[in-house]
Write a structure and sequence with these properties.
The chain has 10 helices and 8 strands. It is an alpha/beta fold. Strands 1, 2, 3, 4, 5, 6, 7 and 8 form an 8-stranded mixed sheet that branches. The structure holds adenosine monophosphate, fe (iii) ion (2 copies) and zinc ion. The site of zinc ion (ZN) has 5 residues, from loops.
Length: 288
Protein backbone atom coordinates (compact mmCIF):
# COMPACT_ATOMS: atom_id res chain seq x y z
CA UNK A 1 0.00 0.00 0.00
CA UNK A 2 1.42 3.37 -1.04
CA UNK A 3 0.04 6.38 0.88
CA UNK A 4 1.43 9.70 -0.38
CA UNK A 5 -0.21 12.30 1.89
CA UNK A 6 0.06 12.41 5.69
CA UNK A 7 0.70 15.02 8.39
CA UNK A 8 2.82 15.03 11.55
CA UNK A 9 3.00 17.45 14.47
CA UNK A 10 5.39 19.61 12.43
CA UNK A 11 2.12 21.01 11.07
CA UNK A 12 -1.40 20.03 12.09
CA UNK A 13 -1.04 16.28 12.59
CA UNK A 14 -1.10 14.75 16.08
CA UNK A 15 1.77 12.28 15.77
CA UNK A 16 5.49 13.00 15.74
CA UNK A 17 7.11 12.04 12.41
CA UNK A 18 8.44 8.78 13.93
CA UNK A 19 5.06 7.92 15.46
CA UNK A 20 3.45 8.61 12.08
CA UNK A 21 5.86 6.21 10.36
CA UNK A 22 5.27 3.56 13.06
CA UNK A 23 1.50 3.83 12.61
CA UNK A 24 1.83 3.68 8.84
CA UNK A 25 3.77 0.44 9.11
CA UNK A 26 1.11 -0.98 11.48
CA UNK A 27 -1.59 -0.03 8.95
CA UNK A 28 0.14 -2.01 6.22
CA UNK A 29 1.58 0.99 4.36
CA UNK A 30 4.78 0.05 2.49
CA UNK A 31 5.62 3.55 1.19
CA UNK A 32 4.55 6.70 3.04
CA UNK A 33 4.94 10.35 2.06
CA UNK A 34 5.20 12.88 4.89
CA UNK A 35 3.56 16.07 3.59
CA UNK A 36 3.30 18.63 6.35
CA UNK A 37 1.83 22.02 5.50
CA UNK A 38 4.48 24.49 4.28
CA UNK A 39 7.45 22.84 6.03
CA UNK A 40 10.15 20.21 5.53
CA UNK A 41 11.08 20.07 9.23
CA UNK A 42 9.70 16.57 9.75
CA UNK A 43 11.67 14.92 6.94
CA UNK A 44 14.81 13.93 8.81
CA UNK A 45 13.03 12.26 11.72
CA UNK A 46 10.63 10.51 9.32
CA UNK A 47 13.47 9.13 7.18
CA UNK A 48 15.35 7.86 10.25
CA UNK A 49 12.15 6.18 11.49
CA UNK A 50 11.42 4.67 8.06
CA UNK A 51 14.91 3.20 7.95
CA UNK A 52 14.42 1.69 11.41
CA UNK A 53 10.92 0.37 10.64
CA UNK A 54 11.77 -0.93 7.18
CA UNK A 55 9.23 1.02 5.14
CA UNK A 56 9.71 3.44 2.24
CA UNK A 57 9.50 7.19 2.72
CA UNK A 58 8.91 9.94 0.19
CA UNK A 59 9.58 13.41 1.64
CA UNK A 60 7.08 16.04 0.55
CA UNK A 61 5.32 19.28 1.45
CA UNK A 62 1.67 20.32 1.18
CA UNK A 63 2.07 23.87 -0.09
CA UNK A 64 -0.73 26.36 0.66
CA UNK A 65 -1.51 28.39 -2.45
CA UNK A 66 -4.19 30.68 -3.76
CA UNK A 67 -5.76 30.87 -7.23
CA UNK A 68 -8.30 33.10 -8.92
CA UNK A 69 -11.33 31.69 -10.67
CA UNK A 70 -13.13 34.67 -12.14
CA UNK A 71 -13.71 37.03 -9.24
CA UNK A 72 -13.25 34.38 -6.57
CA UNK A 73 -9.99 33.66 -4.80
CA UNK A 74 -9.77 30.00 -3.80
CA UNK A 75 -7.36 28.02 -1.63
CA UNK A 76 -5.48 25.29 -3.53
CA UNK A 77 -3.16 22.80 -1.83
CA UNK A 78 -0.27 21.56 -3.94
CA UNK A 79 1.71 18.50 -2.86
CA UNK A 80 5.39 18.89 -3.67
CA UNK A 81 7.29 15.60 -3.76
CA UNK A 82 11.07 15.43 -3.42
CA UNK A 83 11.92 19.12 -3.91
CA UNK A 84 15.33 20.35 -2.75
CA UNK A 85 14.51 21.50 0.82
CA UNK A 86 17.31 24.10 0.63
CA UNK A 87 16.18 25.76 -2.60
CA UNK A 88 16.35 29.48 -1.66
CA UNK A 89 13.20 30.56 -3.51
CA UNK A 90 11.11 27.73 -2.15
CA UNK A 91 12.35 28.03 1.45
CA UNK A 92 11.72 31.80 1.36
CA UNK A 93 8.15 31.32 0.16
CA UNK A 94 7.42 28.61 2.72
CA UNK A 95 8.80 30.80 5.52
CA UNK A 96 6.62 33.68 4.35
CA UNK A 97 3.52 31.47 4.36
CA UNK A 98 4.28 30.02 7.81
CA UNK A 99 4.80 33.52 9.22
CA UNK A 100 1.59 34.81 7.74
CA UNK A 101 -0.23 31.82 9.23
CA UNK A 102 0.93 32.97 12.70
CA UNK A 103 -0.39 36.51 12.20
CA UNK A 104 -3.62 35.19 10.77
CA UNK A 105 -4.13 32.72 13.65
CA UNK A 106 -3.43 35.49 16.19
CA UNK A 107 -6.02 37.68 14.50
CA UNK A 108 -8.56 34.85 14.71
CA UNK A 109 -7.76 34.34 18.40
CA UNK A 110 -8.24 38.07 19.02
CA UNK A 111 -11.67 37.92 17.40
CA UNK A 112 -12.59 34.77 19.34
CA UNK A 113 -11.30 36.23 22.61
CA UNK A 114 -13.96 38.94 22.43
CA UNK A 115 -16.60 36.23 22.98
CA UNK A 116 -14.79 33.19 24.43
CA UNK A 117 -12.19 32.59 27.16
CA UNK A 118 -9.29 31.85 24.84
CA UNK A 119 -5.78 33.28 24.53
CA UNK A 120 -2.79 32.88 22.21
CA UNK A 121 -1.03 30.95 24.99
CA UNK A 122 -3.79 28.31 24.83
CA UNK A 123 -3.03 27.83 21.14
CA UNK A 124 0.72 27.65 21.73
CA UNK A 125 0.08 24.98 24.37
CA UNK A 126 -1.34 22.81 21.56
CA UNK A 127 1.62 23.24 19.23
CA UNK A 128 5.08 21.84 18.95
CA UNK A 129 7.43 24.88 18.80
CA UNK A 130 8.11 25.79 15.19
CA UNK A 131 5.21 23.76 13.78
CA UNK A 132 3.10 25.30 11.00
CA UNK A 133 0.06 26.94 12.66
CA UNK A 134 -3.42 26.32 11.30
CA UNK A 135 -7.02 26.21 12.39
CA UNK A 136 -6.54 22.71 13.86
CA UNK A 137 -4.38 24.20 16.66
CA UNK A 138 -7.11 26.75 17.38
CA UNK A 139 -9.68 23.94 17.34
CA UNK A 140 -7.61 21.92 19.83
CA UNK A 141 -7.25 24.97 22.10
CA UNK A 142 -11.01 25.59 21.99
CA UNK A 143 -11.66 21.92 22.78
CA UNK A 144 -9.13 21.94 25.64
CA UNK A 145 -11.03 24.89 27.12
CA UNK A 146 -14.35 23.06 26.76
CA UNK A 147 -15.67 25.68 24.33
CA UNK A 148 -16.29 23.00 21.66
CA UNK A 149 -16.39 19.20 22.07
CA UNK A 150 -13.65 18.42 19.50
CA UNK A 151 -11.70 19.55 16.41
CA UNK A 152 -14.43 18.78 13.91
CA UNK A 153 -17.10 20.59 15.93
CA UNK A 154 -14.90 23.70 15.88
CA UNK A 155 -14.47 23.46 12.10
CA UNK A 156 -18.22 23.14 11.65
CA UNK A 157 -18.99 26.18 13.81
CA UNK A 158 -16.77 29.05 14.98
CA UNK A 159 -13.75 28.16 12.79
CA UNK A 160 -15.77 27.65 9.61
CA UNK A 161 -14.85 29.78 6.59
CA UNK A 162 -18.22 31.52 6.83
CA UNK A 163 -17.74 32.38 10.53
CA UNK A 164 -17.12 36.01 11.55
CA UNK A 165 -14.04 34.77 13.46
CA UNK A 166 -12.47 33.38 10.27
CA UNK A 167 -9.50 35.17 8.70
CA UNK A 168 -7.81 33.96 5.51
CA UNK A 169 -4.03 33.70 5.22
CA UNK A 170 -1.49 34.90 2.68
CA UNK A 171 -0.39 32.20 0.26
CA UNK A 172 1.69 32.14 -2.88
CA UNK A 173 -0.18 32.12 -6.18
CA UNK A 174 -0.78 28.53 -7.38
CA UNK A 175 0.97 28.92 -10.76
CA UNK A 176 4.04 30.45 -9.09
CA UNK A 177 4.15 27.64 -6.54
CA UNK A 178 4.05 25.03 -9.33
CA UNK A 179 6.94 26.76 -11.11
CA UNK A 180 8.95 27.08 -7.89
CA UNK A 181 8.44 23.40 -7.01
CA UNK A 182 9.71 22.46 -10.48
CA UNK A 183 12.70 24.78 -10.11
CA UNK A 184 13.51 23.02 -6.84
CA UNK A 185 13.45 19.66 -8.63
CA UNK A 186 10.13 18.61 -7.10
CA UNK A 187 7.01 17.05 -8.59
CA UNK A 188 3.72 18.90 -8.07
CA UNK A 189 0.44 17.08 -7.50
CA UNK A 190 -2.79 18.94 -6.73
CA UNK A 191 -4.02 17.74 -3.32
CA UNK A 192 -7.70 16.80 -3.02
CA UNK A 193 -8.88 18.66 -6.16
CA UNK A 194 -12.26 20.40 -5.86
CA UNK A 195 -12.49 19.83 -2.10
CA UNK A 196 -14.40 23.10 -1.68
CA UNK A 197 -16.51 22.70 -4.82
CA UNK A 198 -20.14 23.52 -3.99
CA UNK A 199 -22.41 20.48 -3.54
CA UNK A 200 -25.14 19.73 -6.07
CA UNK A 201 -23.00 20.61 -9.10
CA UNK A 202 -22.19 18.46 -12.11
CA UNK A 203 -19.29 17.90 -14.49
CA UNK A 204 -20.48 20.77 -16.65
CA UNK A 205 -19.77 23.23 -13.83
CA UNK A 206 -16.15 22.16 -13.35
CA UNK A 207 -13.57 24.92 -13.93
CA UNK A 208 -11.73 23.35 -16.90
CA UNK A 209 -9.88 26.56 -17.76
CA UNK A 210 -8.48 26.83 -14.24
CA UNK A 211 -7.12 23.27 -14.50
CA UNK A 212 -5.70 23.85 -17.99
CA UNK A 213 -3.89 26.96 -16.77
CA UNK A 214 -2.26 25.03 -13.94
CA UNK A 215 -1.29 22.21 -16.30
CA UNK A 216 0.24 24.79 -18.65
CA UNK A 217 2.19 26.17 -15.67
CA UNK A 218 3.68 22.69 -15.15
CA UNK A 219 1.36 20.85 -12.75
CA UNK A 220 2.44 17.20 -12.76
CA UNK A 221 -0.58 15.38 -11.36
CA UNK A 222 -3.84 15.07 -9.41
CA UNK A 223 -4.61 13.32 -6.15
CA UNK A 224 -7.83 11.73 -7.41
CA UNK A 225 -8.41 9.01 -4.82
CA UNK A 226 -8.94 11.09 -1.69
CA UNK A 227 -12.09 11.04 0.43
CA UNK A 228 -12.76 14.76 -0.12
CA UNK A 229 -12.73 14.69 -3.93
CA UNK A 230 -16.35 14.81 -5.12
CA UNK A 231 -17.29 11.44 -6.68
CA UNK A 232 -18.73 12.98 -9.84
CA UNK A 233 -15.40 14.69 -10.53
CA UNK A 234 -13.13 11.63 -10.23
CA UNK A 235 -13.57 10.27 -13.78
CA UNK A 236 -13.34 13.80 -15.16
CA UNK A 237 -9.99 14.27 -13.38
CA UNK A 238 -8.72 10.86 -14.54
CA UNK A 239 -9.56 11.71 -18.14
CA UNK A 240 -7.94 15.11 -17.88
CA UNK A 241 -4.82 13.45 -16.45
CA UNK A 242 -4.78 10.92 -19.27
CA UNK A 243 -5.18 13.63 -21.91
CA UNK A 244 -2.20 15.59 -20.55
CA UNK A 245 -0.12 12.58 -19.51
CA UNK A 246 -0.28 13.53 -15.82
CA UNK A 247 0.29 11.44 -12.69
CA UNK A 248 -2.72 10.23 -10.67
CA UNK A 249 -2.35 9.43 -6.97
CA UNK A 250 -4.47 8.14 -4.10
CA UNK A 251 -3.80 9.00 -0.45
CA UNK A 252 -5.29 9.28 3.01
CA UNK A 253 -4.39 12.82 4.20
CA UNK A 254 -4.11 11.33 7.70
CA UNK A 255 -3.78 13.90 10.53
CA UNK A 256 -3.59 11.57 13.56
CA UNK A 257 -5.92 9.36 15.51
CA UNK A 258 -9.23 11.15 16.10
CA UNK A 259 -8.07 14.35 14.36
CA UNK A 260 -10.17 13.64 11.27
CA UNK A 261 -11.83 10.48 9.96
CA UNK A 262 -9.03 9.87 7.43
CA UNK A 263 -7.15 6.64 8.20
CA UNK A 264 -3.66 5.70 7.00
CA UNK A 265 -3.81 3.56 3.86
CA UNK A 266 -7.51 4.20 3.18
CA UNK A 267 -6.49 5.16 -0.37
CA UNK A 268 -3.47 3.95 -2.26
CA UNK A 269 -1.29 5.03 -5.19
CA UNK A 270 -0.45 2.63 -8.01
CA UNK A 271 3.27 1.66 -7.94
CA UNK A 272 3.64 2.77 -11.58
CA UNK A 273 2.41 6.24 -10.64
CA UNK A 274 4.87 6.44 -7.73
CA UNK A 275 7.59 5.44 -10.19
CA UNK A 276 6.63 8.38 -12.40
CA UNK A 277 7.04 10.72 -9.42
CA UNK A 278 10.48 9.26 -8.67
CA UNK A 279 11.50 9.54 -12.34
CA UNK A 280 10.39 13.17 -12.64
CA UNK A 281 11.93 14.36 -9.34
CA UNK A 282 15.51 15.57 -9.04
CA UNK A 283 15.57 17.68 -5.86
CA UNK A 284 15.90 14.98 -3.19
CA UNK A 285 16.18 11.20 -2.90
CA UNK A 286 13.29 9.08 -1.68
CA UNK A 287 14.15 6.43 0.92
CA UNK A 288 12.91 3.14 -0.53
P1 LIG B 1 -6.15 26.23 7.67
O1 LIG B 1 -5.18 25.81 6.61
O2 LIG B 1 -5.49 26.80 8.86
O3 LIG B 1 -7.28 27.07 7.15
O4 LIG B 1 -6.84 24.88 8.20
C1 LIG B 1 -7.22 23.87 7.33
C2 LIG B 1 -6.64 22.56 7.82
O5 LIG B 1 -7.50 22.02 8.78
C3 LIG B 1 -6.55 21.52 6.70
O6 LIG B 1 -5.23 21.12 6.53
C4 LIG B 1 -7.35 20.36 7.15
O7 LIG B 1 -6.61 19.18 7.09
C5 LIG B 1 -7.73 20.65 8.56
N1 LIG B 1 -9.18 20.39 8.70
C6 LIG B 1 -10.14 20.79 7.86
N2 LIG B 1 -11.36 20.37 8.28
C7 LIG B 1 -11.15 19.69 9.41
C8 LIG B 1 -12.01 19.01 10.31
N3 LIG B 1 -13.33 18.96 10.13
N4 LIG B 1 -11.49 18.43 11.36
C9 LIG B 1 -10.16 18.48 11.55
N5 LIG B 1 -9.28 19.10 10.75
C10 LIG B 1 -9.77 19.71 9.67
FE1 LIG C 1 -4.02 19.75 7.43
FE1 LIG D 1 -4.97 19.88 2.17
ZN1 LIG E 1 -3.23 17.46 3.93
Amino acid sequence: MIDLHAHSNQSDGKDSPSELVRRAKLSGVSVLAITDHDTTDGWEEAITAARAQGIGLVPGIEVSTRARIGLRSISVHILAYLPNPDHPGLTAELAKTRNSRIGRAKEMVERLAADYPISWQDVEDQLKPGATVGRPALADALAAKGIVPNRSAAFESILHKSSPYYVSDYSIETELAIKLIREAGGVSVMAHPLIDFPAGKSELDLPLKHFEQLIAAGLNGFEVDHRSVPDFAKDWLRELALKHNLIVTGSSDYHGDGAKENQLGENSTDPAQLQRILDQASGFEAFL
